[in-house]
Amino acid sequence: MSFAFYIVSVLAVGGALAAVLLKNTVHCALALTVALAGLALLFLNLDAQFAGFAQILVYIGAVAILIVFAILLTRGSEVPKDGVYSPNWAIGIVIAAAVFSVLGWAVLQSAWILPHDAVVPAVTVHDIGVALVGRYVLPLEIVALLLTAATIGAVIVAMHEKDGAQ
Amino acid sequence: MTPLAGYLLVAALLFAIGLAGALVRRNAILVLIGIELMLNSANLNFIAFWRYGPHPEVLTGMMFAIFSIAVAAAEAAVGLGLVIAIYRHAQTTDLDKMNRMKG
Q1: 3-state helix, strand, coil in chain A (%, to 5)
Q2: How far apart are CA A129 and CA A35, in angstroms?
Q3: Chain B contact for A39, CB < 8 A?
Q4: Residue B38: its chain A contacts at CB < 8 A?
Q5: What kind of architecture, by CATH, is found in domain B3-95?
Q6: For the domain A1-79, what is the CATH code?
Q7: Is A46's CB within 8 Å of B81's CB?
Q8: What is the residue extent of each domain of chain B?
Q9: Which tens digit of pLDDT belongs to each residue from B25-60?
Q10: Are A64 and A26 in contact (CB under 8 A)?
Q11: Interface pTM, i.e. ipTM
């Protein structure tokens, strides 16, 4: 377990906690960006360069910006007077704690069976590109179709429409 | 503790935080943020198992994570479009106030 792993994990978990707990929605979006950057660094720490840079490009470059736009378009930056947490927040916390304890218990119980150290996989972006247009070409095409449909659908759903006029 | 167990624990913690966010917050956009965190923690599991698995050169976990990132981006676009459409209609993003299916 390297020192970098601890630093990056603290960054990711702290960003995620801030994204969930902060009152101002814009601050939450910025904290989410920190958490996503921490996750990208974890990917890079795991020798998955392509996934790490894809994470930075897609999440920090697109999704976080989209979330900020949505917050500003819905005037979500104003802190509501009746609190930001749902009235039965305690039940949610209990459910999340139960899920974490089950997952953590499962990981710790099976820790002895997990592989200790593996050779660093010699995977280049070239290999990933060859695999994407070779073995995984059908999922790639389906994802391309899905992204096109989702983009058009999001535009149509969010388009202002009243009495037939756009 | 093995490195893989450490990554799995961090992923479990991030998943629980995302779940808590999705269950506890009232703002619909914050619920979407929680869902994004949960999807990302699943990706971390895929990458960690790919890295420490017996055959990393097959790229299965890496490919799953890459496609999962693409699907999550599509999900975020559609989800935020829906939130904006509902805001236009109901003038709120508070999930507790969205209690009617008929406009």
Answers
A1: 70, 0, 25
A2: 28
A3: yes
A4: none
A5: Orthogonal Bundle (1.10)
A6: 1.20.120.1200
A7: no
A8: 3-95
A9: 888 899 999 999 999 999 999 999 998 888 888 888
A10: no
A11: 0.90
